[in-house]
Amino acid sequence: MTTIDISGAGKYAEFGESMEKRAFAAHERLESGEPFTGWLHLPSRADESETRRVFEAADRIRQSSDVLLVIGIGGSYLGARAVTDVLCPPPGNSGTQLVFAGNGLSGAYTDRLLRYLEDRDFSINVISKSGTTTEPAAAFRIFERLLERKYGAGAAKRVYATTDAEKGALRSMARERGYESFVIPDDVGGRYSVLTPVGLLPIAAAGADAAGFLKGAAEAELSLGANDMSNPAHKYACVRQAMYEDGKKIELLAVWEPTLRYVAEWWKQLFGESEGKEHKGIFPASLEYTADLHSMGQYIQQGERTLAETFLWCEPTGKAEVPFDENDGDGLNWLAGKKADEINRTALEAVKRAHIDGGVPCLEINMGPPDARSLGGLLYFFELSCALSAYVSGVCPFDQPGVEAYKKNMFKMLGKP
Amino acid sequence: MTTIDISGAGKYAEFGESMEKRAFAAHERLESGEPFTGWLHLPSRADESETRRVFEAADRIRQSSDVLLVIGIGGSYLGARAVTDVLCPPPGNSGTQLVFAGNGLSGAYTDRLLRYLEDRDFSINVISKSGTTTEPAAAFRIFERLLERKYGAGAAKRVYATTDAEKGALRSMARERGYESFVIPDDVGGRYSVLTPVGLLPIAAAGADAAGFLKGAAEAELSLGANDMSNPAHKYACVRQAMYEDGKKIELLAVWEPTLRYVAEWWKQLFGESEGKEHKGIFPASLEYTADLHSMGQYIQQGERTLAETFLWCEPTGKAEVPFDENDGDGLNWLAGKKADEINRTALEAVKRAHIDGGVPCLEINMGPPDARSLGGLLYFFELSCALSAYVSGVCPFDQPGVEAYKKNMFKMLGKP
After folding, report:
1. What's the CATH number of domain B3-32+216-402, 3.40.309.10, 3.40.50.10490, 3.40.50.300, 3.30.360.10?
2. pLDDT range class, residue B7, cuts 50, 70, 90
3. In the list A187, A355, B107, B401, which could disulfide-bond A340, CB 3.0-4.6 Å?
């Protein structure tokens, strides 16, 4: 179960009653049936037969395919990427490999991927609410053609469409061409969709415990339901807004396992897209420790004092330890017998103390072990915290009015009829 | 050759004579023989016989090894990672694979890597000025043991040490154990070391054109030597300081090819560690477009107006184009026949216009084609720009006094004698 320690936030840990009241009001508002709050009770209300159908499709993909090409962008990309990086990490992960496409427009990347898939068995999971978003739609055209060339009439059986229940181009194509399809619920926005088939199908196809992931989220939904200050999501929302209102304009999410890097990317979309509007919002940035102590560490210790830092810790599972060396050429025998993970944990304590001394308030989120159940709990925790935090700051967590501006320009420049 | 277009910076493009003068003084200071400015004329003064020795070692590694395990952190990691991600990109790159270790303390990652290397032929390039930095030293102990178990007396021939010329633990170990070794020059700091054997050996071992990379840097050294405002490094340094002094506290480097993601990570270390001190410095953050338009795009368009953005473009090389589809189910036929790269370029123009309209000044750096020569030029351009920019802002670009704070705490907590 996800826990939070805000004792390193100094004065911001005492955010006061008026902040608490804002969070209570935010939680009430969430429960009052606002639009796009379908994610709130999604885990406990998941349709079991639909979930079973997702898992059965995943099994078929695993039997027939070396690679599942996941075509999606934004919330239709980052959730599955984040979860499978943790649960099926490289190097050396076996089974069906997830490869992502339609999350950019690089021709060179597309060319490489076409060559890579040429002599591998693959299926496609195309994920798009509308089916007309430029990047995934273009990628789907390109890779569906390869699929048809390889499998002829059998190609349609290798396409899995995750899309709107009724409307949109991809829904129509699924009907006409006979793709198996799954539903993106109407009341769940892209960045909140990891617990729908958007995330669940690729996660299960990669061989991760998607059922455990969903279960962990359902447990979190229950344990984080209380509208009071014992709720860690309330604490997180309140302390980050207290810091922001006092000039901590940037929040750094520092992960302590390399596999969690894309959890931080997913977190950046969740918080950045929910809060960054009306010329306000905490700027979310990510770090991978200890690597980035040797790159961004200097700035964090002594740069502009507009930073707050959140450590994302998971319980260690590694066996590796520092071996004893008779010659002790590197003088490291004082660490001999210590596990790498023990040193990692000590580094966290040391960094926390150093950064607090340097004027950077530090929070710590502990997700528990890096397994499917904990991850489900963690991502739900972040979803709820984010919605509360955005409401507390006075913006709507569920819209993204700013993402259309460049698209309008682009369509005009490209001469869209 | 790297070029810069600052016309999207609006009023900041007119940074004025006093800013120019500060840049001229900075450039003079650089050329006056300050400590740690060895990188400035490194490309043109590289010792040819040493470079040849590096390339010969790389050839031996390529013949003997499926994997080169590169052990290093910070500047001993990010340069090689950045360059080889561009020049030997996944998926489907063949030849000797670079795998990185010693850039963190995750036990689980170390365990996975030990299993992965078990049945693969590998060599180690351990990179450390001192040989005692905790992460790489611990990793080297662990993986050298595996090497010895696999290759017995032949293990030492598979270790390549890149370290100080005379001093330090790793230099002593190389002497005693007979590792082939290469020198990290005294007057080149970690984040400026990609053009020394620190970067060159792994780059060449991965099969990239390391000679072309060095040549491109030498050409840049020549073309960027002029201490006047025709110099694009001057323009970049001046405009970013003009923006910073007016409240643009965060610079986003947005790359338009997924392979350039670690160039942005390298850039973050270079600028963040050079400028982030004395409670000032532009906060460097990175983006991968178009993917991150669907995650951070909302914040950039409408969040806090403290952002400046720099696009890093490379000339496209892809062939992929949007195919025509008779049924036009996705309504995308208006794009049929257009190359993905053409749409990518149009997206850049569209985003630039949208973000400028939204109050975010936008610079554009064009590195030319994504080849070795252009990359050498680009990284040198960034090194020079960064040194100028830091001097202009009144801080020393070559120290990192803040990175010791957490280490002191850590050694104390771990009971270092």
Report:
1. 3.40.50.10490
2. very high
3. B107
What is the number of residues in chain B?
Answer: 417
pLDDT of B95 over the 90 cut:
no
Tell me if B3-32+216-402 shares its fold with B42-208.
yes
What's the confidence (pLDDT) of residue A405?
Answer: 96
Cβ pair B334:A416 closer than 8 A: yes
Q: Where are the domains of chain B?
A: 3-32+216-402, 42-208
pLDDT band at B91, cuts 50/70/90? Answer: confident
- pLDDT tens digits for range B365-390: 999 999 999 999 999 999 999 999 99
Q: Specify the pLDDT at position B47.
A: 92
Contacts of A403 in chain B (CB under 8 A): 293-294, 297-298, 301
Closest CA to A62 of A210, A182, A261, A170: A210
Kindly report the backbone phi and psi dihedral angles of residue B72, in degrees, each rounded to the nearest multiple of 5, phi listed first: -175, 165
Residue A221 known to be catalytic: no
B3-5 and B362-366 strand pairing: antiparallel
CATH of A42-208, one of 3.30.70.3270, 3.40.50.10490, 3.40.50.300, 1.10.10.10: 3.40.50.10490
Has the ipTM of the complex gone over 0.90? Answer: yes
Best mutation target among B296, B406, B410 (most A Cβ atoms within 10 Å) is: B406
Residues 3-32 of B with CB under 8 A from A: none
What is the C-alpha to C-alpha distance for residues B12 and A352, in angstroms, rounded to an integer? 37
Averaged pLDDT, A332-339: 97
Per-residue pLDDT band for B334 (boundaries 50, 70, 90) equals: very high
Q: What is d(CA A295, CA B268) in angstroms, rounded to the nearest whole number?
A: 7
- Tracing tokens 């992929």 back to the chain, one arrives at B320
- Residues B218-230 pLDDT 10s: 999 999 999 999 9
Contact A406 B259 (CB under 8 A): no
Q: Residue A91 pLDDT more than 80? A: no
Residue A245 at interface with chain B, using a CB cutoff of 8 Å: no
Pair B393, B275: CB distance under 8 Å: yes
Q: Which residue carries 């490194």 as its tokens?
A: B42
Residue linked to tokens 């931080």: A264
C-alpha dihedral over B366, B368, B374, B380, to 10 degrees?
A: -20
The model scores a pTM over 0.80 = yes
Give contacts of A344 with chain B, Cβ < 8 Å. 104-107
pLDDT at B94: 79
- Is A118 an 8 Å CB contact of chain B? no
